[in-house]
Amino acid sequence: MAQRNYKSYEELQFADDFMFKRVMADPEICKGVLERLLGIQIEHISYPETEKIFENAPDSRGIRLDVYLTGDSTKYDIEMQAKLQTAIGKRSRYYQSSVDLDAIGKGDSFLDLNDSMIIFICTFDPFHAGLHRYTFRQQCEEASDIYLQDGTSKIIFNTQGTQNDVALEVIHFLKFVENLDAAGNDEFLLSIRNKIKAERMSIEGRQEYTMFQMVYNDMLIEGKELGRTEGRTEGLAEGLAEGRAEGIETAKKVLIETCQELGLSKENAKKKLVEKFDPENAEETLNRYWKSDL
């Protein structure tokens, strides 16, 4: 029997992207997470239409690619980042553009754009400064008291922070992200833990998770095998590099084909390319392999 190289569904934690998105589909939990992290009161939240939320499986009840929220007229995109990212700035830029495109229709005025906020919850410190929270807004370099006021902001939370820069309940939440046993007597965190336990028993969730992992692993195996074959054939460092590049290119091609087979939109296939590979050249790669007649 082939060795499984990914967690079982029952092993998934809050920091695992699949489980995070399923849990955050609960509006009360999602609202509570935002209120705790941002220190604000939100009257209510609403998700965009189902098609934009659930697109990782053939039917409309798959997991979400992103978590889009509307609360107090602000658009939110909240993401879990459990793997070290070297291009987190470009990743946030891409998500920002996606939120804006979803928020305004063709022919509408840019003045109709709501304020928006991109939130990353990282299990690593992307800037190695020891902060639990990094906030970024458009600021003039020549005059630091002048802001562009474009209504956008990006906040990166970090579970590895060491400084006393945020409220204790935020630090408590970030510790909980990495360890469910850190819930203590916190009723809100206990409600999240109970939700995770319930999700682990979901037959539907387990089936979707298993299907997606199988497809993704097949994609990686095909790409890596082609890379090794090409490298051996050349027998030189240059040939090995070309073989690896070919393998990566094949993996991208298989990913796009898989997205189409699962019924994902072209825009969400592009987001998958950005998540799994690199923000650079995603549009060009998508146009090269996307089959418009499917």
Short description:
With 294 residues, this protein is an alpha/beta fold. Helices cover 48% and strands 10% of the residues. It folds into two domains: 9-200, no CATH class; 203-289.
Account of the 3D structure:
By secondary structure, the protein is an alpha/beta fold. It has two domains: 192 residues, no CATH class; 87 residues. Helices cover 48% and strands 10% of the residues. The protein has ten helices and five strands, in the order αααββαβββαααααα. The chain has a five-stranded mixed β-sheet. Helix 7 packs antiparallel against helix 8 and helix 8 runs antiparallel to helix 9. The longest helix has 32 residues. The radius of gyration is 20 Å and the shape is globular. The two termini are 35 Å apart. About 8% of the residues have low confidence.
